[in-house]
Specification:
This protein is an alpha/beta fold. The chain has helices spanning 11-15, 19-30, 32-35, 47-56, 79-85, 98-111, 125-131, 145-152, 170-183, and strands at residues 67-71, 90-95, 116-119, 134-140, 156-166, 190-194, 203-209. The chain has a seven-stranded mixed beta sheet with strand order 3-2-1-4-5-7-6, with helices on both faces. Helix 2 (19-30) packs antiparallel against helix 5 (79-85), helix 4 (47-56) packs across helix 5 and helix 8 crosses helix 9 (170-183). Mean pLDDT is 91; it is low at 215-230.
C-alpha cells in the first residue's frame, strides 16, 4: 500500500498544530481515496502540493468565523484542507454521490473535525433552503464558471463570495463567462493567486461576490436558521 511522503516544511506554517491531522488526511487520499476512485493513482506522489496545500492556502481569502459551503466536494477538496487550516470556519460539504459521501464521513470521523456532509447538489431547492445565506461558497474542478455561478451564488448571502479553485486557464474562463456570472447575480469575476512561497505555482482562485439575485434586484439576506442545527 502506498504511503504519502512527508509534508513539505511549509505545511507547518499552514496547519500549525493540526499538521498531524493534515498528514492523516493526506494518507486517506493516497490510500482509500485512490482505492475508491476519489483521486487517480498518479496523484499519490503529489497529494501535498497539488491537493492538500493547493486548497488550504485559499483560507487567506476567507474571513474569520465564516460559514462555508463546499459544493461538489468529491474527496473533500477544498473543504477539508480549509477546515484543518482554519478551525474557526463552519464548513459543510455538499456531494451528490453516495460512495463519496460515505468516504467523506469516514474521514471526518477519523479526523474528529466538526465538518458536516450532505448528499445532494447545490442546485437542488432543498439544499438551497438548508444552506442559503453562506458567507463563502467554495468549489474545485466542479464545472465551468458560468454553470458554477448559477449553482453557487444562490447559496450566498448578499456580499458573500464564491471562491472557485481553478487552473491555468482561469483568466480565459473569466473572460468567456463574465456575462453569465452577472446574469446569475454575481459581480465582476476576478482571478487572484494564493499561497505564494508555499505552493509553486501559487493557487489560482476565481473570486465572485454575490451582488444581486437572478432577476437583477438586490438579493435579500435569508433568515439565519443555522443556530437550530448542531
Amino acid at each position: 500500500m502506498f504511503h504519502v511522503k512527508h509534508p513539505p516544511a511549509v505545511a507547518a506554517d499552514v496547519f500549525g498544530d493540526r499538521l498531524p491531522l493534515a498528514g492523516r488526511y493526506a494518507e486517506h487520499l493516497a490510500t482509500s481515496g485512490v482505492e475508491r476512485g476519489l483521486i487517480g493513482p498518479r496523484e499519490t506522489a503529489r497529494v501535498w502540493d497539488r491537493h492538500v496545500l493547493n486548497c488550504a492556502v485559499a483560507a487567506e481569502l476567507i474571513p474569520h468565523g465564516a460559514r462555508v459551503v463546499d459544493v461538489g466536494s468529491g474527496a473533500g477538496l477544498p473543504g477539508i484542507p480549509l477546515a484543518l487550516a482554519r478551525p474557526d470556519l463552519q464548513i459543510v460539504l455538499i456531494e451528490p454521490l453516495q460512495r463519496r459521501v460515505d468516504w467523506l464521513g469516514e474521514v471526518i470521523d477519523d479526523l474528529q473535525i466538526p465538518v458536516l456532509v450532505e448528499r445532494g447538489r447545490a442546485e437542488e431547492s432543498a439544499v438551497r433552503r438548508r444552506w442559503e445565506g453562506a458567507d463563502v461558497v467554495t468549489a474545485r474542478a466542479v464545472a465551468p464558471l458560468a454553470r458554477l455561478a448559477g449553482w453557487a451564488l444562490p447559496l450566498l448571502r448578499t456580499g458573500g463570495t464564491l471562491l472557485a479553485v481553478k487552473g491555468a486557464s482561469a483568466a480565459d474562463e473569466v473572460a468567456r463567462d463574465a456575462g453569465a456570472v452577472r446574469k446569475s447575480g454575481g459581480g465582476e469575476p476576478r482571478v487572484v493567486h494564493c499561497g505564494a512561497g508555499i505552493v509553486d505555482p501559487p493557487s489560482t482562485v476565481v473570486l465572485v461576490e454575490r451582488v444581486a439575485d437572478r432577476r437583477g434586484g438586490s438579493a435579500e439576506r435569508p433568515r439565519r436558521r443555522r443556530e437550530q442545527r448542531s
